[in-house]
């Protein structure tokens, strides 16, 4: 009995030390202090329910601390999200190396970054790093002392935004709900933008489904040439057609091997007619409460309703 308890405690300790928190944001050559302008939690656990409101800026099982600070960011610059296992950890304690998966970042334009919950529509992805030549995005961050470089688009309007940095661990993702998602929101004020683009936006929760091939996957069956589909829409780019058209999720290291097949359980919903230049790509969002992007899908795809907040081209 005693040995069993010791094993259980050891397993629990190993899982806890694997967690991580986005604790600092470096911008314009300035490294802000831990928790400055970021809603950091005291506990470093993941969010595993992709339908939860906690997916936006963390919270729930990981209560976050409000911040009254806003970090100035120059449009077109690159900021750095700093990840640590705890609020007091050093650069050699980021996240357990076994926690493999993609890294991502999203923006949401808000009226007041210190009070907006982040929940709901308005989000657009600006960065992603998945799997390439056998190397995961999380491994790059861990090996870079917890630093995740995030380019800020130069063509978006000035103003206050929430910057949502995210790391996803897939070591237990072979069953639905096994993916571990880590995220916090930094409160930023973007200046110097060209304000020429209006990105298509999405709802959080709503951007992911538990059965997405990038979240329901056995990563231990993969080879260096395997394909991985990064969850969510592709990052918005200033060069995108129409100033905000978002493409389908990308794959890394093309391969003929199919990693996973999910079954569609949602029902198709009608779409409205829109210019072909505004047709949403396969797997991109096409509807939902508060959504303002394309509502028709490219040829061969149908807009499928997942919930009141999210419909996707499938």
TrEMBL record:
Keywords: Carbohydrate metabolism, Cellulose degradation, Copper, Disulfide bond, Metal-binding, Monooxygenase, Oxidoreductase, Polysaccharide degradation, Secreted, Signal. It is an enzyme of class 1 (oxidoreductase). It is found in: Secreted. Its cofactor is Cu(2+). Pfam families: AA9, CBM_1. It catalyses: [(1->4)-beta-D-glucosyl]n+m + reduced acceptor + O2 = 4-dehydro-beta-D-glucosyl-[(1->4)-beta-D-glucosyl]n-1 + [(1->4)-beta-D-glucosyl]m + acceptor + H2O. This is lytic cellulose monooxygenase (C4-dehydrogenating). It comes from Neoarthrinium moseri. Residues 278-314 form the CBM1 domain. PANTHER family: ENDOGLUCANASE II, PUTATIVE (AFU_ORTHOLOGUE AFUA_1G12560)-RELATED. Gene3D superfamilies: 2.70.50.70. One of its GO terms (molecular function) is metal ion binding. Its EC number is 1.14.99.56. Belongs to the polysaccharide monooxygenase AA9 family. Transmembrane segments: none annotated. InterPro entries: AA9, AA9_LPMO, CBD, CBD_sf. SUPFAM superfamilies: Cellulose-binding domain. GO terms for biological process: cellulose catabolic process. Residues 1-18 form the signal peptide. One of its GO terms (cellular component) is extracellular region.
């Amino acid at each position: 009995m005693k040995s069993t308890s010791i094993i259980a405690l050891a397993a629990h300790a190993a899982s806890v030390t694997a967690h991580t928190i986005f604790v600092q944001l470096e911008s314009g050559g300035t490294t802000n202090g831990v928790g400055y302008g970021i809603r950091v939690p005291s506990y470093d656990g993941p969010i595993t329910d992709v339908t939860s409101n906690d997916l936006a800026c963390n919270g729930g099982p990981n209560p976050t601390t409000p911040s009254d600070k806003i970090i100035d960011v120059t449009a077109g610059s690159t900021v750095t999200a700093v990840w640590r296992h705890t609020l007091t950890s050093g650069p050699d304690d980021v996240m357990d190396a076994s926690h493999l998966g993609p890294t991502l970042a999203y923006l949401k334009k808000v009226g007041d970054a210190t009070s907006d919950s982040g929940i709901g529509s308005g989000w657009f992805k600006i960065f992603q790093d998945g799997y390439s030549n056998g190397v995961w995005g999380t491994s790059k961050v861990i090996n870079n002392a917890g630093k995740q470089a995030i380019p800020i688009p130069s063509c978006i309007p000035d103003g206050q935004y929430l910057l949502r940095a995210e790391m996803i661990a897939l070591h237990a993702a072979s069953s639905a709900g096994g993916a571990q998602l880590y995220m916090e929101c930094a409160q930023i004020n973007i200046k110097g933008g060209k304000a020429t683009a209006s990105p298509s936006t999405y709802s959080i929760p709503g951007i992911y489904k538990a059965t997405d091939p990038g979240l329901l996957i056995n990563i231990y069956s993969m080879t260096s040439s395997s394909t991985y589909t990064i969850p969510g829409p592709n990052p918005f780019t200033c060069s995108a057609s129409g100033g905000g058209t978002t493409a389908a999720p990308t794959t890394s290291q093309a391969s003929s091997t199919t990693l996973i097949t999910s079954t569609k359980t949602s029902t198709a919903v009608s779409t409205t007619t829109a210019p072909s230049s505004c047709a949403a790509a396969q797997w991109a969002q096409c509807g939902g409460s508060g959504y303002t992007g394309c509502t028709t899908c490219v040829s061969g795809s149908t807009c499928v309703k997942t919930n009141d907040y999210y419909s996707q081209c499938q």
